[in-house]
Every structure is written in structure tokens, then in C-alpha cells.
User: What shape does this take?
Amino acid sequence: MSDDEDDDPAVSLGEHTPVEGAPLARVSSRLTWPKEKSEVARLEGESVIRTPAGPQELAAILEDVDETYFQRHQEFETHIRSVIGTGPIPTADE
Assistant: This one.
């Protein structure tokens, strides 16, 4: 880096808005696939993920998933999203 470059970011990022829970993709990336639903619950069931209804424990969401085996993380995420839905995630102060 040269001395005449600014330390300011090239794009203004705005204010930090806290959001409770982890993104679903982060939780699914911590696992290796294929995986049984019971094994996902054992390994990551206590993880709190972001949902449009607010943060929820993954174990509670898995109870509403009918599938018992996930071949790939995309399949897992599709089944989870069918339960939690899609939409804006509320911030921590909402």
C-alpha cells in the first residue's frame, strides 16, 4: 500500500444495526454433508438462527421438518426455509 491512499473505506457502510442469531448459511457451512436430521440437531441444535419471526433455536425448527436425511446443505437450507419462511430479519431492537 502506498502512503497516499486514504484509510477511509471506498464505500460508506452506514450505521451498524445489531441482528440476533446467526445466518442459516453460516450454521450449515459448519457441517459436512450428507447428514441425518438427528445428527444436525445433536451438533447444531442449540444454535440460534435468524428468521423473519426473530431468532429461533435450530432444534425447534427441525421439529417441524419432515425430512430425516439431507444430501447437501442446499437441501437442508431449503427445508429450513420452508418452515421459517423468507423475508426481512428484524433487528435486535425491534
About this structure: Helices lie at 24-29, 37-44, 58-62, 73-84. The first helix runs from residue 24 to 29. DSSP finds four helices and four strands in the chain. The mean pLDDT is 87.
